[in-house]
Specification:
The protein has a domain of 180 residues. The chain has two helices and 26 strands. The protein is 8% helix and 43% strand. It comes from Emticicia agri.
Length: 376
């Protein structure tokens, strides 16, 4: 049976990687509720969101429900307060003009509808250098799995580490790949009439999976699934050269667009992320009982022993777009495919209710809008 600390770890991991309300498998955990916080503010001129959810177990599954009607604020330098606006799904949005500034300190404070108050520790905005170079190499067995190793491009960066100050880094990536399959139906076929368009189960096709082309230009979006952090404690002021920032699966032989994010994080955020990475990525699967519980920097003001998942981070961000042309891939290596199964397009039957193509539906993992920097 998983211990309560394993429950907290699982919540943190799922929060960091997915930031959405998804049930995930959990073996034998007694019912328990834990508040989870997804809160990172940056110096980018982007929409910035704090997401609050309450997670609980039922049977062998953990669910996360949005925390609504909370009062959420960012406190700057201990006095200035910025109120966030609530929208659906437990999301609280900062004013569009808000962004962090180097040297200033920030704290997250919020109060739930029942009056329970929470606050984070103060986090200071530090500076981060630009990425000076991006390059890659192809490895036929680049991603190790328990069954079959997968080909991948290893992507590296160079950057300059400022001298005479302690710096901590975190890297992440986002990948756009061309997608030509916009619908997959298992045990049936795709119908547009009667509305709404959907897969319809049919006994005659119960053992068949059919795919359908995209009716328009479409890109699949992939994200990193590993935490990648670094501290300059032993290399302060020296250039960071050849830092591996991503193992990009060889989805297709066509070129793809990669966005790399380099972020400065505080020492406390680094320690949190490093511990999380070590326990999850170096100690087996997510269902292994970790050697220690992971506690973030958010606490219940009146009840300090309440476990709160997540970490309030303040980061400076530099992004770099990189065209991954894949010309160095081994011609004898077969791409793994953009979809997660062998493609089987339905043979055309001339039925106007069942066109051969489906729309590219906008989502976190798919877009019909050509990403900036894409090379045709």
């Amino acid at each position: 049976m998983l211990k309560s600390k394993s429950f907290l770890l699982l919540l943190c991991v799922c929060l960091m990687f997915y930031a959405c309300v998804e049930p995930f498998s959990l073996g034998g955990q007694q019912e328990r509720r834990i508040l989870t916080v997804d809160a990172t503010i940056t110096d980018l001129a982007d929409e910035q969101i704090v997401k609050l959810t309450e997670s609980f177990s039922s049977g062998n599954v953990v669910y996360a429900l949005p925390v609504t009607k909370a009062k959420v604020e960012i406190v700057i330098n201990g006095n200035e307060r910025v109120l966030l606006t609530e929208r659906a799904g437990g999301e609280y949005v900062l004013p569009i003009s808000f962004h962090t500034r180097v040297g200033e300190k920030y704290k997250l404070v919020f109060q739930k509808e029942d009056g329970t108050s929470y606050e984070s520790t103060e986090e200071r905005q530090s500076v981060v250098s630009d990425i000076t170079r991006v390059y890659n190499e192809f490895k036929a067995d680049g991603i190790k799995t328990t069954s079959l190793d997968k080909p991948a491009h290893y992507v590296y960066i160079d950057t300059n580490d400022p001298a005479n100050e302690k710096n901590n880094y975190m890297w992440s990536w986002k990948l756009w790949e061309r997608q030509n399959v916009c619908m997959t139906c298992t045990g049936g076929r795709y119908f547009t009439s009667p509305a709404p368009a959907r897969c319809r189960l049919e006994p005659a096709f119960s053992e068949v999976t059919y795919d359908y082309y995209c009716a328009e230009s479409c890109w699949q979006i992939f994200y990193n699934e590993e935490l990648n952090v670094f501290s300059d404690v032993y290399s302060n002021g020296q250039p960071i050269v050849g830092r591996l920032v991503g193992k990009i699966p060889y989805y297709s032989s066509m070129g793809a667009l990669l966005e790399i994010k380099q972020q400065s994080i505080s020492s406390s955020a680094y320690q949190y992320m490093k511990l999380l990475a070590n326990q999850v990525q170096n100690n087996g699967s997510l269902v292994d009982t970790p050697p220690a519980a992971i506690i973030g920097n958010i606490r219940n003001v009146a009840k300090s022993d309440e476990a709160v998942a997540g970490f309030f981070m303040v980061t400076s961000v530099r992004t770099q777009k990189y065209w991954l042309d894949k010309q160095n891939a081994d011609v004898l290596v077969t791409p793994i495919g953009v979809v997660d199964h062998p493609v089987n397009f339905e043979p055309s039957a001339g039925d106007p209710r069942r066109p051969p193509a489906a729309p590219c539906e906008e989502s976190r993992v798919r877009t019909r809008f050509k990403p900036e920097g894409w090379i045709n």
